[in-house]
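Suppose a colleague, Dr. K., hands you the sequence of a protein chain of 214 amino acids and asks what its three-dimensional shape might be. Before reaching for any lab equipment, you can write down a predicted structure in token form. Begin with the sequence itself:
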Amino acid sequence: MGCGRVGILLTQELCKAGHDVSVIDKNPAAFDRLPPGFEATQVVGLGFDREVLEEAGIKEADAFLAVSSGDNSNIVSARVAREHYHVPKVIARIYDPRRADIYERLNIPTVSSTRWAVKQMMLMLSHPREEIKETLAAGDLFRMRVQIPPHLVGQKVSSMEAEGKILVAGVDRGGAGFIPVPSSTFQEGDFIAVIVHKDALEALDEMLNETGDH
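The predicted structure, expressed as tokens, is then:
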């Protein structure tokens, strides 16, 4: 929802990634700013109007991104998408950072500023929402909760770390937690609390996904 600068950039990135995209904006002229070559469904209306949302395909949507110019419109439409249509991934843009805590209590991740918003939303969409718990340091760091895959069972916890990039802050084992020491090893069913630099997300994925390089 929203065909301003963020909405246009998101439409481009999502279309390039092969996704089907619908764009909602109350101003028909807003769609004139969409560059040619990007196939996106255009729906004129308010993003919290259920008829408008359903015309845009909300019932089949995998994600809903509220990026209009109004904080109130964004949060209301995001709540409708999350609570009424149960869209798996809902993210709202805000302009007033003082409202972020309120929105987070509604279990709706929020982002701000144009370029950072696009980068963060693409990252959030490409990683399971339940893994990313929060962003830190203006979005440079992620705090994530990740289950240890079978191929890492028996390996040292330190094998998951990369200096300056990935830090395992804690291990959840059967409901009890501990901070790992150099001799700690992973056991089946472990979850880790990990701090990851944004540039190391792909490296973390490679560690978690068993490949021929391991």
